[in-house]
């Protein structure tokens, strides 16, 4: 006959105290910056509780649930859904860690923007504010800025609020959270893509330097070097051109890597010095003159280009 007071077997002797001790011995390593999978188990007015397999549910504050303003937490974190989170605060005294979806979204946004900037792609910025220096907005949920000097419209900036502007990236600095864009460069890139070498185009003089004239061609700026103006020596560019003057130019060369163009009007002359003596008359008949020049070039034997005339200074129009 067995003794009723005998010690129970090992499975019966495992008490709640033993269970808690076993949990204490289990090493939960939740560190800040770690990505972890978790399942939404409860929603409150302050945030969501997430089961990550720890001693206590983790917590996502409402302002860490998305990049923008959160007005419906249940739509972002429905109960029962499993997502990837980022640990932004390690365990407190109760063993609870704090999680974020917002920080993960920020990291992805910065990575996407860096790739766009490196490949020269443009983006769109919706203008949300204005200051003396330019306009502010958001790109992929990140705050961004376009300086006034890089806007197509540099006056009455308040009228740009609410508009979508196409822009390229000037500075992408995740560490300093600095994102600077250029609408002007984006417009220039579009214009450059629509321009071909050897074409006669109308333009407008936007700047005059000692070495040549900068001409705007519907968003893209090219340099009409002083040696490409006439077969005769040009003594004074200011006597020949003025800012705002409309002229027609030949696209001599496009340098996509340097993002600049060389222009010329020398081939429109019937004799050296004609552009200096009667530029207005030459411009009025520019199309037929360029057609004749092209026919002459086709009929004439090829010759090496004069390297002296093709030189360009390093300075570009600002």
The CATH homologous superfamily name of the largest domain equals: Nucleic acid-binding proteins
Low-pLDDT runs = 1-12, 307-316
Number of helices: 9
Which structural class matches the secondary elements?
alpha+beta
Distance between the termini: 105 Å
Could you tell me the CATH topology label of the largest domain. Answer: OB fold (Dihydrolipoamide Acetyltransferase, E2P)
Beta percentage is 25-35%
Silhouette: rod-shaped
Helix and strand run: HEEEHEEHEEEEEHEEEHEEHHHH
| CATH architecture assignment of the largest domain | Beta Barrel
Helix percent reads 10-25%
Please describe the biggest sheet, giving its number of strands, its sense, and whether it closes into a barrel. Answer: 5 strands, antiparallel
What's the overall average pLDDT, rounded? 83
Number of strands: 15
Please describe the topology of this protein:
Elements: H1 16-25, E1 35-43, E2 47-51, E3 58-61, H2 73-76, E4 82-89, E5 98-100, H3 102-118, E6 123-131, E7 134-139, E8 142-147, E9 164-173, E10 178-182, H4 183-193, E11 200-209, E12 212-217, E13 220-225, H5 237-240, E14 246-255, E15 260-264, H6 274-277, H7 279-284, H8 286-299, H9 307-310
Parallel strand pairs: 13-15
Antiparallel strand pairs: 1-2, 1-4, 2-3, 4-5, 6-7, 6-9, 7-8, 9-10, 11-12, 11-14, 12-13, 14-15
């Amino acid at each position: 006959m067995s003794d009723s007071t005998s010690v129970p077997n090992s499975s019966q002797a495992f008490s709640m105290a033993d269970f808690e001790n076993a949990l204490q011995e289990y090493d939960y390593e939740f560190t800040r910056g770690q990505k972890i999978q978790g399942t939404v188990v409860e929603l409150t007015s302050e945030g969501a509780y997430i089961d990550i397999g720890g001693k206590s549910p983790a917590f996502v504050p409402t302002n860490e649930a998305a990049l923008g303003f959160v007005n419906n937490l249940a739509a972002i974190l429905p109960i029962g859904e499993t997502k990837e989170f980022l640990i932004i605060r390690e365990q407190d005294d109760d063993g609870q860690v704090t999680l974020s979806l917002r920080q993960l979204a920020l990291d992805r946004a910065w990575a996407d923007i860096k790739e766009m900037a490196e490949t020269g792609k443009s983006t769109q910025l919706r203008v949300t504010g204005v200051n003396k220096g330019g306009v502010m907005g958001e790109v992929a949920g990140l705050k961004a800025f376009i300086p006034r000097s890089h806007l197509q419209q540099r006056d009455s900036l308040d009228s740009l609020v609410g508009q979508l502007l196409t822009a390229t990236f000037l500075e992408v600095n995740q560490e300093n959270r600095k994102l600077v864009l250029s609408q002007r460069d984006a417009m220039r890139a579009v214009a450059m893509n629509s321009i071909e070498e050897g074409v006669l185009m109308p333009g407008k003089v936007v700047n005059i330097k000692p070495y040549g004239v900068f001409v705007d061609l519907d968003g893209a700026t090219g340099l009409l070097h002083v040696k490409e103006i006439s077969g005769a020596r040009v003594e004074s560019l200011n006597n020949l051109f003025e800012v705002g003057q409309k002229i027609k130019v030949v696209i001599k060369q496009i340098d996509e890597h340097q993002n600049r163009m060389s222009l010329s009007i020398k081939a429109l002359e019937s004799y050296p010095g004609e552009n200096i003596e009667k530029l207005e008359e030459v411009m009025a008949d520019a199309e037929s003159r360029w057609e004749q020049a092209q026919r002459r070039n086709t009929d004439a034997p090829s010759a090496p280009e004069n390297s002296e005339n093709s030189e360009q200074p390093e300075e570009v129009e600002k």
